[in-house]
Task: inverse folding
């Protein structure tokens, strides 16, 4: 997803916001049923689809991106209202239905992901706001029979030079009937009143009193609750099922077989779960019954010793290594990771002969709608999706396979009643679609002066896009761009470089996980670069600085983070600092971590100082929140997270064995935002990649041990200390 | 029949006494502000007050709380601590996805109810049972302090 972003972003930079490229058209055409409406970049300006003004002056903004905590229900209304000039306090937000008018401006489908919401709407929504404002002014001028030049809009009113005024509410009906202006003039950044100003979230009030409605909160008349027994091994199937006992559980209404397993339908969740516990299923475990991550790691290590598909080649690594005074080699590995959204997966479906209504927290409306239509035997336009608040997304709710939505429709089809499918936490943790497990073999040569002269990096891990409609655009010459992002585009000035890739086919479903490939490559690249600095006897910050002279934005955040963190200042005994810098999703982030280790091997992260350059920004409060959020997400993975598989079975099940960071482990996080006039970049994901390497580098500084494997659990730390 | 007093209202529910309070609150009484996160008492999303004490409703059998006063997120704003916490949460812009926040607020309100001026360490100890995947922890710490201050000023921000 990130690479879709990067490519389209280049187009964005080159041609302006609303023009898409052939690449995006490729995605557009690959999704059956998605090719309706105008092509990407040719969205008609449809203010009426995005803005609704009621006679009581309430302004409803219809938001076409899913709110999953990243703040789009505030930042996107800010874009519209910068131009619309309604009273900010009168704004209400509503989620958009599925319709081509709400398609992502770059991807030609309705979706939220890749840290793209703000930049992809930056121009369109301001134009929408401006068009709506112009229509309101025209309506007022017509009512007064005056020249519209003497009318001004502001704070929810149109005011005439004579002093008379109409509220937007008074004008709305007339304005909505007017033709949409073909061209609108947008404000200069210097006169922005909202954009760039710290603005509180619009959805806080309903999120502190229990009123906010998530997918799991939906209830329909006559609705049944379903819990599904899924195979214990990925790719397994039901061989036989004895539902006799389950059907005697009080409240259980039915037991039905669906492609993903066996669904137990009951009046409520507890009964459905009790019914599932009483099922007797014989599984055909299929080809993955012997799978183990321990075995896979050995295979990956072997593969990493052989040449893979070339992702990036510059200069000649052989010559480079031959000229080196010193060569350093290392192996790195990171595990599968679950998204572990706080709201477990769920989907509510009301399927009728000629319609299908779905209530769900999803990031992939168009894909899910089309999948639902295929299963229901309906036309896509007969399927209606109500996008609820998402209790976290992180990529899990953007599945090309539409797993949890497809299953919901299958269950509703078999049940012949409205159904809510609820996943337990255990179902969610074991349900697959993980961040892939990776193994990296990496070497570099440094010359006598300590400068790197050769870099060879072999990456082994599953492709996320293989076998999906995204393959055509993200897979080039056998290289999945999302597997090598952050590694193949190394910013450091190293004359001889080779990055290659093995993408083994493994039966574990994988998916984008907040920051996608960068979640792994930043750890490897930024840790190894630290190793090089120490091998060259240089300060890791100074070492990076010298290699980044051609990359001012990397350099800018690196220097800012170091300065704010007091890089080089003495620390209490036992503490160490580590630094890392990484670009992803069009934004540049550097982080300095300060850590210590307890005698039990527990890593304590005391402080993270973060500097971010995301270009022009809309809501600095959101930037800070998302940096903090990314750091916590990255720390959960760096310190705790691992999904492992043994005998084909996922070994983790809940927050006891798949822990995430808790409040008592939360470091003091300081975020510094670079003032920039560059085009806006992403903010949801770029905070994640630098934190794991910053912590690993800090650990080296604090305790002299180099961890090349995540997570950095106490037992791993102790083992490394023992080894010296 | 199970008799429950929730948010000052009496309810009769036809469920088995061993059903977790969480699912009765959510599905039978349709008070959906209380969230299901893990079902094993590890995440705190389902926190409610039972006689003023924060309890995991996913680990509380509904039969055990008959005759006790139960408060959920929907009514915690009627208590001085709950009201201060909600105001502070908005002022500090705490929520992101918001899913865990009902539980965070219920736990914070119970903490302030018994300890109106908690230290950082006491806040960490009191709220570390509540997970937040969005990582709003830093603002949670700030908001608890702010709520504590508000309570000291008679609930005013």
Result:
């Amino acid at each position: 997803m990130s690479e879709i972003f990067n490519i389209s972003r280049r187009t964005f930079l080159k041609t302006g916001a609303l023009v898409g490229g052939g690449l995006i058209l490729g995605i557009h055409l690959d999704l059956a049923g998605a090719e309706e409406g105008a092509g990407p970049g040719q969205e008609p300006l449809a203010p009426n689809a995005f803005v609704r003004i009621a006679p009581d002056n309430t302004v409803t903004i219809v938001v076409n991106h899913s709110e999953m905590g990243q703040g789009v229900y505030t930042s996107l209304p800010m874009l519209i209202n910068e131009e619309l000039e309604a009273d900010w306090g009168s704004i209400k937000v509503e989620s958009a239905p599925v319709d081509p008018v709400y398609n992502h401006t770059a991807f030609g489908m309705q979706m939220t992901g890749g840290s793209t919401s703000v930049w992809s709407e930056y121009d369109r929504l301001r134009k929408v706001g401006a068009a709506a404002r112009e229509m309101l002014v025209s309506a007022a001028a017509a009512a007064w029979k005056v020249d519209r030049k003497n009318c001004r809009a502001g704070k929810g009113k149109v005011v005439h030079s004579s002093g008379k005024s109409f509220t937007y509410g008074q004008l709305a009906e007339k304005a909505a009937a007017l033709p949409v202006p073909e061209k609108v003039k947008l404000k200069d950044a210097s006169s922005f009143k909202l954009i760039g100003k710290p603005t509180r979230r619009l959805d806080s009030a309903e999120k502190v009193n229990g009123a906010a409605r998530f997918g799991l909160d939906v209830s329909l008349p006559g609705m049944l609750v379903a819990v599904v027994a899924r195979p214990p091994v990925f790719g397994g199937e039901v061989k036989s099922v004895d539902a006799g006992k389950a059907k005697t559980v009080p409240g259980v209404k039915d037991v039905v077989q669906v492609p993903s397993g066996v669904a137990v339908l009951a009046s409520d969740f507890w009964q459905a779960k009790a019914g599932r516990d009483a099922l007797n299923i014989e599984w055909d475990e299929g080809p993955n019954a012997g799978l183990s991550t321990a075995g896979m790691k050995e295979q990956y290590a072997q593969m990493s010793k052989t040449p893979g598909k070339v992702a990036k080649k510059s200069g000649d690594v052989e010559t480079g290594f031959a000229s080196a005074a010193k060569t350093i080699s290392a192996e790195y590995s990171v595990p599968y990771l679950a998204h572990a959204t706080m709201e477990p997966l769920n989907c509510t479906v009301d399927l009728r002969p000629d319609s299908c209504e779905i209530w769900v927290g999803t990031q992939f409306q168009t894909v899910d709608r089309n999948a639902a239509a295929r299963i229901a035997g309906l036309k896509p336009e007969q399927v209606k999706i109500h996008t609820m608040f998402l209790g976290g997304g992180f990529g899990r709710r953007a599945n090309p396979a539409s797993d949890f939505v497809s299953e919901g429709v299958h269950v509703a089809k078999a049940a012949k009643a409205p159904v809510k499918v609820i996943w337990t936490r255990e179902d969610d943790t074991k349900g697959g679609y993980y961040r892939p497990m990776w193994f990296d073999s990496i070497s570099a040569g440094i010359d006598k002066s300590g400068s790197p002269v050769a870099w060879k990096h072999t990456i082994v891990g599953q492709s996320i896009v293989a076998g999906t409609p995204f393959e055509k655009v993200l897979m080039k010459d056998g290289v999945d761009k999302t597997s090598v992002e952050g590694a193949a585009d190394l910013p450091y000035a190293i004359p001889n470089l080779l990055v290659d890739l093995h993408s083994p086919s493994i039966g574990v479903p994988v998916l984008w996980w907040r920051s996608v490939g960068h979640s792994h490559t930043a750890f490897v690249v930024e840790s190894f670069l630290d190793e090089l600095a120490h091998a060259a006897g240089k300060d890791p910050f100074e070492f990076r600085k010298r290699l980044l002279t051609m990359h001012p934005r990397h350099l800018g955040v690196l220097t800012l983070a170091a300065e704010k963190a007091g890089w080089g200042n003495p620390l209490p005994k036992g503490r160490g600092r580590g630094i890392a810098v990484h670009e992803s999703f069009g934004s540049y982030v550097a982080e300095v971590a300060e850590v210590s280790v307890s005698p039990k091997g527990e890593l304590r992260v005391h402080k993270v100082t973060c500097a971010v350059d995301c270009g022009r920004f809309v809501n600095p409060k959101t930037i800070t929140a998302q940096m903090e959020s990314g750091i916590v997400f990255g720390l959960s993975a760096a310190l705790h997270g691992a999904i492992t598989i043994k005998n084909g079975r996922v070994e983790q099940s809940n927050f006891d064995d798949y822990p995430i960071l808790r409040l008592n482990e939360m470091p003091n996080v300081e975020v510094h935002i670079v003032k920039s006039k560059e085009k806006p970049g992403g903010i949801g994901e770029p905070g994640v990649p630098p934190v794991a390497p910053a912590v690993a580098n800090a650990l080296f500084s604090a305790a002299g041990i180099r961890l090349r494997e995540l997570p950095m659990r106490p037992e791993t730390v102790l083992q490394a200390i023992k080894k010296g | 029949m199970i008799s429950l007093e929730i948010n000052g209202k009496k309810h009769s529910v036809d469920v088995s006494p061993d059903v977790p309070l969480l699912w009765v609150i959510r599905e039978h009484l349709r008070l959906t502000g209380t969230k299901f996160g893990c079902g094993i008492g590890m995440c705190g999303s389902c926190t409610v007050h039972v006689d003023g004490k924060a309890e995991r409703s996913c680990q509380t059998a509904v039969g055990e709380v008959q005759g006790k006063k139960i408060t959920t997120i929907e009514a915690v704003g009627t208590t001085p601590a709950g009201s201060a916490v909600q105001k502070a949460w908005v002022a500090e812009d705490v929520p992101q996805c918001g899913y865990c926040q009902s539980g965070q607020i219920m736990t914070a309100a119970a903490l302030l109810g018994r300890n109106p001026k908690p230290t950082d360490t006491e806040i960490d100890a009191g709220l570390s049972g509540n997970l937040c995947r969005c990582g709003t922890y830093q603002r949670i710490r700030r908001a608890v302090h702010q709520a504590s201050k508000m309570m000291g000023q008679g609930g005013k921000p």
In short: The two ends of chain B are 44 Å apart (CA to CA).
